[in-house]
Design brief:
Layout (H helix, E strand, L loop, with lengths): L1 E4 L4 E7 L14 E6 L3 E3 L32 E6 L4 E10 L14 E6 L7 E6 L9 E7 L4 E5 L2 E6 L5 E6 L5 E15 L2 H4 L9 E4 L7 E7 L8 E9 L6 E3 L2 E2 L6 E3 L3 E8 L4 E18 L2 E8 L6 E3 L1 H8 L5 H26 L5 H21 L10 E3 L5 H8 L13
Antiparallel strand pairs: 1-4, 1-6, 2-3, 2-5, 6-7, 8-13, 9-12, 9-13, 10-11, 10-13, 13-14, 15-21, 16-20, 16-21, 17-18, 17-21, 19-20, 21-22, 23-24
Helix pairs in contact: 3-4, 4-5
Length: 420
């Protein structure tokens, strides 16, 4: 695991490792490091803790299976300073799923990915199979909160009692998997080696990426292939709502709805092979999530190529209970909710002006969403004496269709500069 400070002169970071580290730090005991701008700090588990040719543990609290030396669930947070850090996680050499899939020894490879902040996590995920990999894939669900319930394809499969603990899943066929949780969680998808994945021979190797929540959708993205002398086959997996299967374009060419496979009753995915090498523009006015990946002899990669990964603006159940007392007065209730959203808008503006010098396209879209929410809220509470107590999650992408309908043709009062 690597940490890097990109902003402040000095940032103090607290790290609570899940296992004993090579540098002598004890599992479960927090320690701090201070990073100057541009500095990198690496945390590594003991090399003697690694295991070979062993089935992965089913959970982080299992007494059997490979988990020794696994830093999954390590907590990293800034405790002093206002700077931001990037966190990367992985392993030097990994078998997925294990060293022997019953047809000879499979290969291994390093795994490396950037870790999302917990504020960007969601509760609804769809894992899409990799093209041609009939042997499926593996995944982990890591809880960000205590007592997190995990549902797979609608069925409760486990309750993770502590934040940072995880469960492991092994999908053995080329099918999509819906994973939902009752609290925010990480969902990590792993590509298997060729022998285990079904590609066979030397094709492919293990790869990793952290999946975005299905609501973290983009309208447009540019996807590049990770071409090397060996890496010569590339795909993109595109996830949309089933009502948006006719809305996807790649390099301005409309994709037929027939290429999509339904997942449950809400979503659909497509696997599209792209040229080697190539850069491809993918867009959909209705929003999408995109995963890019590729394979070659003893090589592979995967990354989330289209997702917002924005912070989730939440109004908690406790806050709503307080607001419920005002439900007899819709205008007063609306005013209180407006204040919540306006505060975040102010935060966005200040952040943009400080870091960019102008108001970004992201903030413009949030303003549109903000207006749409207020309109919807007004309709919902008008004449009502009570409101439902729950959690409202606000991202621009999760109700993008409503934004477009509510704000079509609307001219904003402020001037905005589009980001390139």
């Amino acid at each position: 695991m690597r940490l890097r400070n990109f902003t402040d002169a000095n940032v103090k970071v607290e790290i609570t490792p899940t296992v004993d580290t090579k540098g002598g730090k004890t599992a479960g005991t927090p320690f701090t490091v201070t990073l100057a701008r541009g500095q990198v700090y690496e945390v590594q588990s003991k090399s003697t803790d690694g295991t070979n040719n062993t089935d992965p543990a089913a959970t982080s609290w299992s007494t059997t299976g490979a988990k020794a030396g696994d830093l999954t669930g390590t907590r990293v947070r800034v405790v002093e300073g206002c700077g931001k850090i990037n966190v990367f996680s992985g392993a030097r050499s990994s078998h997925v799923t294990k060293g022997n899939c019953g047809s000879g020894i499979n290969g291994r490879d390093h795994l490396y990915t950037q870790v999302l902040p917990t504020a960007a996590l969601g509760k609804d995920y769809v894992l899409m199979p990799f093209s041609g990999q009939t042997g499926g894939y593996a995944y982990k669900v890591i809880a960000a909160k205590d007592t997190t319930k995990v549902y797979v394809n609608g069925t409760l499969v486990n309750t993770i009692l502590k934040a940072g603990q995880w469960i492991y899943g092994h999908i053995t066929t080329a099918v999509a998997t819906s994973i939902s949780t009752d609290k925010p969680a990480y969902v990590v998808q792993y590509m298997k080696n060729g022998v285990c994945s079904g590609l066979g021979g030397s094709a492919g190797d293990p790869a990793i990426f952290i999946s975005p929540d299905v609501n973290q959708q983009l309208i447009k993205t540019l996807v590049g292939t990770a071409t090397t002398s060996n890496m010569n086959q590339h795909w993109v997996n595109i996830l949309v709502r089933q009502t948006a299967k006719n809305s996807v374009k790649i390099n301005n060419v409309a994709q037929p709805a027939s290429i999509f496979t339904n997942v449950g009753s809400k979503y659909a995915y497509a696997q599209v092979k792209v040229n080697n090498p190539s850069a491809n523009t993918i867009q959909s006015d209705s929003g999408f999530v995109c995963v890019a990946y590729g394979v070659g002899p003893y090589e592979s990669y995967s990354y989330s190529a289209g997702a917002v990964f924005e912070n989730v603006v939440g109004i908690t159940a406790e806050e709503l209970r307080e607001l419920e007392e005002q439900a007899h007065n819709p205008a007063q209730l609306q005013k209180a909710l407006v204040a919540k959203l306006a505060a975040y808008t102010d935060y966005l503006f200040n952040k943009d002006l400080k870091e960019k010098g102008y108001i970004t396209d992201y903030s413009r879209r949030f303003i549109e969403l903000y207006n749409s929410i207020l309109e919807s809220l007004h309709k919902e509470i008008h004449g009502e004496k009570q409101i439902k107590v729950g959690t409202i999650k606000v991202t621009h992408s999760m109700i993008m269709n409503e934004v477009r309908k509510a704000n079509k043709g609307r001219v904003m009062d402020a001037e905005f500069k589009e980001e390139n």
